[in-house]
Amino acid sequence: MTATTPNWLELEQKYDSGVYNKHQVVMVKGKNATVWDSEGNEYIDCVGGYGVANIGHCNEDVVEAIKQQAETLLVMPQTLPNDKRAEFLEELVSVLPEGMNRIFLCSTGTEAMEAAKKFAITATNGRTKFIAMKRGFSGRTLGALAFTWEPKYREPFKGVMDQNVEFITYGDIEALKAAIDENTAAVIMEPVQGEGGVRPGAVEFIQAARQLTKEKGALLILDEIQTGFCRTGKMFACEHSGVVPDGMTLAKAMAGGVPIGAFAMNAEVADRMPKGGHGTTFGGNPLAMAAGVAAIRFMKKNQLWKQAEEKGNYFMQKLREIGSPKIREVRGLGLMIGVELKEKSAPYITALEHEHHVLTLQATPLVVRFLPPLTISYEQIDQAVAAFKTVLETVEG
Ligand SMILES: *Cc1c(COP(=O)(O)O)cnc(C)c1O
Questions:
Q1: Residue 143 is labelled as binding a ligand
Q2: Is 390 exposed, middle or buried (0-12, 13-18, 19+ CB in 10 A)?
Q3: Which residues are listed for pyridoxal 5'-phosphate binding in this entry (predicted)?
């Protein structure tokens, strides 16, 4: 760094709220699955913006769409129809499961969960009980936090949290049967738990949830915020079980990196919400809509789900071939991959970044999570696996 360059790291740390555990590096540029820091070092990015960068960093189609839209119209509230919004809604519905054709637009995943919660209440005539999953993650705003299991996220705020959320063991059909009743508005789950350690849900469990919610007049809401948009080898993870939910929360990769969120639902759910019952200023803004159109078209044009499936299988195979005694399990679906160690994963994640310039993230204290852009090259996968093998051999846990 030259004397005239501001110390970005120091500035950011000085003024940030302090809630984030910041790495000692300043990231300045990205392309596909590669990112660069302010010193010009190159990294293989298996963090992928926490699962946002599915179509690669600075995807050319999205960049072009943003440039054009930025010169045309940036903001238009949802009471005033907009050409890009109409185009986006049609594009999104074209990839959603049959019957999910009504969309509430917002700007983040947690907001999509908030919408899901309100729509579930109105769709069930004011039922108030929700069933969520142990190890589940649904976001950090208070309404969504009520569905997020991790006690350390919930504890400080428990005094103002919904008490009417029952957490059951993910995969336990009997527990779900016992929990669901005439006051249940919705059952909420991720098709593959992400934050909770990368745990694919059993097909029979998701199908049973579909059946049981139907019987009790409750909604099944699938949180596809991380699993959606090709991540797991299908456009949406629910396709693995053939289950069509009543509502689906979407965000992360939907607009190629621009903030966006949505609650997708069927007409029965949508029609029960009164006019003015919900709303948001930034939802459906033309910039996000233009980016979203380009992102979804890129996924379709390149059959990105296939790439995720093939590269994911290859990646997991290579990780299993490492055969380290420190590895308890390699699991995942598509390019949503977790390696559970028999010891804390943090030292290995740090060594991967510092010594090999491979960025990965944690999911529970024991798991190393890989969420690369789905456009990652096989060569980069090989490099990431070789680096992981080396740190498993050299780092003391
Ligand atoms: C990231 C995530 C959220 C929250 O999304 P934000 O955009 O961070 O608010 C909710 N659910 C799941 C499964 C996620 O992965």
A1: no
A2: middle
A3: 109-110, 137, 223-226, 281
Q: How many domains does the chain have?
A: 2
CA 47 / ligand 1 centre spacing (Å): 14
Please name the helix (run of DSSP H) or strand (run of DSSP E) that holds residue 290, with its range, or none: helix 286-301
Threshold 0.70, pTM exceeds: yes
Q: In this structure, are 248 and 369 located in the same domain?
A: no
CATH number of domain containing 32: 3.90.1150.10
Mean pLDDT of 57-78: 98
63 is a domain residue: no
Regarding whether 158 and 79 lie in a shared domain, the answer is yes
Question: Hey, what are 30's tokens?
Answer: 């990205």
Q: Find, among 267, 303, 193, the residue nearest to 237 by Cα.
A: 193
48 lines ligand 1 (CB under 6 A): no
Q: What is the CATH number of the domain that holds 194?
A: 3.40.640.10
Q: For 143-191, what is each residue's pLDDT tens digit?
A: 999 999 999 999 999 999 888 999 999 999 999 999 999 999 999 999 9
Beta-bridge mates of residue 263: 104, 249
Query: Side chain identity at 109, as an amino acid letter?
Result: G
The DSSP code for 226 is T
Closest ligand 1 atom to Cα of 224 = 13
Place of tokens 């984030």: 20
| Type of residue numbered 285 | N
Nearest CA to ligand 1 atom 6: 109
Q: How far apart are CA 126 and CA 122, in angstroms?
A: 5
335 belongs to a structural domain: yes
- Could you give the CA distance from residue 189 to residue 183 in angstroms, rounded to a whole number? 18
Give yes or no for a contact between 294 and 256, defined as CB atoms under 8 angstroms apart.
yes
CA–CA gap between residue 296 and residue 134 (Å, rounded) = 32
DSSP class of 32: B
In a domain, 164, yes or no: yes
Determine the Cα–Cα distance for residues 258 and 287; give it in Å rounded to an integer: 8
- Determine whether the annotation assigns residue 223 to a binding site: yes
DSSP state of 332: E
Confidence tier at 3 by pLDDT (50, 70, 90): low
User: Does the CB atom of residue 137 touch ligand 1 within 6 A?
Assistant: yes
Q: 122 among the known binding-site residues?
A: no
Domain span at residue 326 reads 8-58+303-394
* Residues 230 and 325 both lie in one domain: no
